[in-house]
Specification:
- By secondary structure, the chain is mainly β.
- It has one domain.
- The chain is built from no helices and 11 strands.
Length: 202
Amino acid sequence: MSVNNTKSKRQLSIYGYGWCVGKITLDYIGRHSCTGAILDEEDFEIEEGTEKVSHQFLSFSNSLKMNLTNLDNSEEDQFEFKNLKKLGLIKENLNPEDLKLTNSFEKIPHFCINHWQCEDEEYYLEFQDSWKGLYGKFTFEIGEVFDLNKLEINIEKLDTNFDFYEWVCKIKYKGKIREDQNIIKSKRIKILRVCKPEFRND
């Protein structure tokens, strides 16, 4: 019996690490000294409001693992990261075989907010939670075809507060909902942002 046998129930499991990215509103921000001058950013007084996760990204790197398991006989097919292009899962010019590190080798421009040109209500915090574990599963019932062409890997670059962008992705299967996520979150970073930023080069 082959792994991808329509007479069996199967699951595609996706593992790796990545980032949950979201926003935190501010109930209060104090930017001025008693003399009315703008404080240094690290001296701002901030009271956080509600938080909301906007995106969950999976690192597009060798840590990405996809396994198709036949739940009747426990046999498994692994789709290796280095072969994703050959399997037709990567539509962009980017080739996983060329990625020696997880970053994109594109340096991130560094900017500072011009706080003199911002209003208190324009500020918010962006947060990023690092995570690792099970990104999710897609289940295929008896009689249902698992078609690699329906698997979508959407790749983009993410600023993770280092010098270089990271390659990240989201994975979908057309017509199915990702289920059974099991991740462990670790480090959180927070970055002060404004809705309509006026920047100057640092």
